Amino acid sequence: MPDIKQQAFIRKLRKHIPASCILSESADLLPYECDGLSAYRQTPWLVALPETAAQVQGIVRCCHESSIAIVARGAGTGLSGGALPINNGLLLSLAKLKDILSIDPANRLATVQPGVRNIAITQAASKYGLYYAPDPSSQIACSIGGNVAENAGGVHCLKYGLTVHNIASLKIITIEGEQLTIGSAGFDSPGYDLLALLTGSEGLLGIITEVTVRLLPAPEFAQVILASFSTVEAAGDAVTAVISSGIIPAGLEIMDHLAIRAAEDFVHAGYPVDAAGLLLCELDGAKTEVISQMESVKETLQKAGANSLLIAKDEAERQRFWAGRKAAFPAVGRLAPDYYCMDGTIPRKHLGKVLATISQWSAEYGLPVANVFHAGDGNLHPLILYDANKPGELERTEEFGGRILELCISVGGTITGEHGVGMEKINQMCSQFTAAELQQFHAIKAAFDPEGLLNPGKAIPTLVRCAEFGQMHVHQGALPFPELERF
Amino acid sequence: MSIIEQLRETVLDAYKSKTPLAITGGRSKTFFGRSIEATPLEVASNTGIINYEPSELVITVRAGTRLSEIETALAEHRQMLAFEPPHFGKTATLGGTIACGFSGPRRASAGAARDFILGTKIINGKGELLKFGGQVMKNVAGYDVSRLMTGALGTLGVLTELSLKVLPMPEKETSLCFECSEQTALDLLQQWLGENQPLSASSFYRGTLCVRLSGSAQAIDQTVQSLGGDTLEQASEHWLSLREQTHHFFKKDQPLWRVSLPPATPAQAIIDADSLFEWHGGQRWITGDIDNINTYYSDSYKTFFRNKINNTPFQPLPAPLLSLHQRIKQAMDPEGILNPGKIHKDF
Rounded distance, CA A327 to CA A334, Å? Predict the structure, then answer.
């Protein structure tokens, strides 16, 4: 049966975009039913694929006039369901806005459209000896608009920061269809730090149509050392020792036994497969500095009880060492039909306790867990292996995952370090924040989007949802949000 | 009752009675922002380092803690606040520094105050004690309200607790100076930055470019050889005098403008006034009797930093941004009781 409302809305959109930029047939909508979190699926009502910022503005105005909700989507690589469509809303794909608009080598800035892939910025800047530092593992596919919306990280955050530290300005379209410039090409700009507020706001506050990123000069030299340990905790203690020695490595990654084995089988990186914990530590900068600091790191790791130490002898070996880490997710993915990737962050000192608890729960649930860990900044990525075709296994995996996130909160950490809340962790937001804090978030949202049309239902749970969730999760005998009615 | 509980009750009462409050800490930065009339809310007694773990690179303090106390604690472990905040007086508190969003000489290389904020506890305009962010490096749960507080001049909440990322002090620092024109200084800086030279601060004043190099001893020695120039005598005093604005360029009673712009912006001759730049060209100071500051650096963000002759220190916001600011202010402080008008007369 034809959807009359849909037909009328398409006619409206057609004033702003050609028919080829609108998808409404179910076969065409199917590729958009999920993002990188494929366990959650929903066919969108309609997909729009604008080619210019002006078209984005036109589409947003149509949606605002007709009170149609908008879910923005970049490359669709997000891991928290942030771009999960809603069944009566428009999915706004920004993938066709993929021009690099300008590069300013003197001020080390690049201005790009939101659909530009993360790595394409570095590729375009490389002729000036510059690069864009944040490097999420999906960097060959993920787009900068999504990086900003999620405040994407990567393996070099400890030294170079997250997306929020590496962007200068944004152009956004508000839900009213107004274009705003946030931030500036200088070091600061008048008024509130809206650049920080928008970064990581998961498409709830505005639609990004342009991003100016800060570029850095490519380091003269980089070197990586591999250290194996008898336990993952020992590898964690070694990280503490390196940082205490006054060195901030460019990358500090830990993998556990299961992850090491999987990565080695998959890409043959040259990892010691008998190690219980493997630490990758990369230093970059001026060659003399890297060489002298590497000597000191080597000594620190030896003192910290490393069983073996291997410094990449050349650039090819360095790349190979990293290939193992960067391929860890797909490598672990070969061990089971499905895996579920968590993203909690903890103060590093609690690593031992958290890993031991996860391993105990893993045995209880009968679900294996591989751990990869951005150790420098405490960001854990436990990968729970499961089989979605086995009845009930996804539900048990989600329950296990939820418990891991609550464990992260209980040791003073957070439910998400870099993947975002999206749809996936929305219930755990009720554990991390109080009702007053969530209401403050909703008030901020309303300052941008009073009708709640931008990515509704994501990132910040309603208090009603928390009350319902609270019935299932009684913490130390106390129901969260006791002031709310239960139903 | 704890200090924080007392502050919360005071704000709650003010919310109920719609009484404007002027948040008052160490009074070292009263010159900054618009002058407002409101009942003082004294926050300087909310002091103390709550948690500092050098190997986690995180310090958590109550907002009234003096900057000097924090810096001493960090220095014991050879760590620092990498944004090198100015104090502008012995009583300077971390809360005031963050509320003003002030960063010092290392800002252009290491990052600004906002870049090091990991979490905050605040009292919003409804007298609610709220916690945002945390004590970990990476945290994307919820909107980044902590960073939003930086530079908001207390108009969105009373800061009660702050968690910051800290960094190790560099192994070695050496400063060099070069005689050259302002434009040559800007060109040299951009060239050196493009080459990844370990600059951690720079200044240019009356024909002298000064740069500070920070890093491992070997790297600094090598850079000194390759850059040439003369060794800057009394270097730490020089950078301190810029940070604290005690350098003789900053005259006591003259209007002082701060101009923030892309660092490679070409130099402009300033008529009948004095100028100095820092932050590799990204922060330019102009002092003197200037008829119209807008004659200079058309595409920039200008602040009437000190000795303002009217009560409009910040440049106006475009209309749609202004209304968004008003709505955000309303979301955090519905009755408009927290430092109302401190940034802009309309919020």
Answer: 11
